[in-house]
Amino acid sequence: MTQNITTFTEAVLEQNPLHKKFMQTALSSMTPDEKTRFETYIDYCAEKGLDTGYLADCYMTIVEDTLREQMYFQRHGHYRHNSFADVANDVYFNDEYMSRYMYGLALTSFLWPNHLAMARFFNETLPTDKTGAYLEIGPGHGYYLMTAMARSAFTSFLGVDISKTSIEQTRALITHFAPDKKDAFDLKEMDFLDSSLPDNSFDAIVMGEVLEHVEKPDAFLKEIARIAKPDAYIFVTTCINAPAVDHIYLFKSPDELDTLFHDCSLEIATPCLCPYEGKTLAESAALKLPVNVAYVLRKT
Length: 300
Ligand SMILES: C[S@@+](CC[C@H](N)C(=O)[O-])C[C@H]1O[C@@H](n2cnc3c(N)ncnc32)[C@H](O)[C@@H]1O
Description:
Rossmann fold
């Protein structure tokens, strides 16, 4: 392990000694390639002047906020908020919080088993020989977009995100890791639903962890179906019974998502369903425990 991973882990355990077994398991579950990418991400943050204590704060912010929201959800049976206005100023437009949240979320994509499983699914399914236009909705920390730029043959990349903080974090990551593609990408700070992109224009559309953050997920999916080319690679992740500070749309089952996709002129090509750790999908559903889901979709 590099010094930065060691000091990051120590800083996490200083804040929460109970996380020790979890961190040990997480670090030993990564493939050598994933561990290298995790190290590279932490080293990149360190180069930007973000010390490992701050990164541990970012990570623990998500851990603690999620735990608090899970307790609320188990007690009330619904998410704390259900409108964009309830969360926008505290999260997406609060630079200090959003920065911490996005660095923390990028770290969970290495450390949390379900987030790692979805990142692996993305890496496995992302076409490497397809060219054309790639769109990402809500890139956030930018790690998926940067990965697509590094691993695929798409020729142009567009990211649309409503948060200035996310746009800046994504731009910094891409500029660092894909400097040769600086003329091949564009980032737009706006609501995706206002982006008015042309019909049948994208060869790939990726939207990770956005559907549960919006009031009308059907509007997002219909818009994706409208702007995707007939054979586009469409990758979407979301979650079921999975509270977080800014989750406002509660999905209750994979069947609900299946129907929603169908109603929005999309269908599932390949699913990746990740139940709560140590439980089956049926047990997770019965106990209303979080389930993460990722899909490759196609237009119907
Ligand atoms: C939870 S983050 C997901 C980050 C990353 N895609 C991932 O999978 O880890 C959600 C992102 O979606 C953005 N977002 C939320 N509502 C949006 C909207 N209406 N239009 C564009 N982006 C939006 C947020 O600003 C944030 O950057």
